[in-house]
């Protein structure tokens, strides 16, 4: 069967609000073509609107990409905000497992879209300028996880001398690697989330949980 070209993308349902149709079309095209090859003209055509209408909702393709990440992919921010506000609601291992699962899903779905950024220096530069202006960027999840771990540290469930930013970087780095590092293996697929997320949480916990054997250590487990 002949593969559908970008110009043959099925237009979004006209009954949906224009902004939603644009986001749906952008998400589909960015997944199939990559960010660098997707144009606002193609997005508008797939959304069933004019390019001028697209620019009424989004200032640029770069802003549209950020909105796709925030509104169409698994979101880590709300989970981190909730856990930071109530760090002792569940065990530290359960919380880290939740974070690892959500982060792995986000990177798994965002990597195919964002990878082409690094093949186009001009696009990457425009993207970086846009995310700075919007207060976004790939460093924000690291800050969010570090803030959560700092809350746990203050609650006595993380070692007082643990580097929470380094721990957050390790956790999210492993989740990001899961999105692309296993394609060349014999299986050709990443580790299942049901085993990956708990194993990652337990491994990180072994390095940051309180060293004593008292109540704090038991609570961390």
From TrEMBL:
Residues 39-58 bind DNA. PROSITE patterns: HTH_TETR_2. Keywords: DNA-binding. SUPFAM superfamilies: Homeodomain-like, Tetracyclin repressor-like, C-terminal domain. GO terms for molecular function: DNA-binding transcription factor activity; transcription cis-regulatory region binding. Residues 16-76 form the HTH tetR-type domain. This is TetR/AcrR family transcriptional regulator. It comes from Streptomyces triticiradicis.
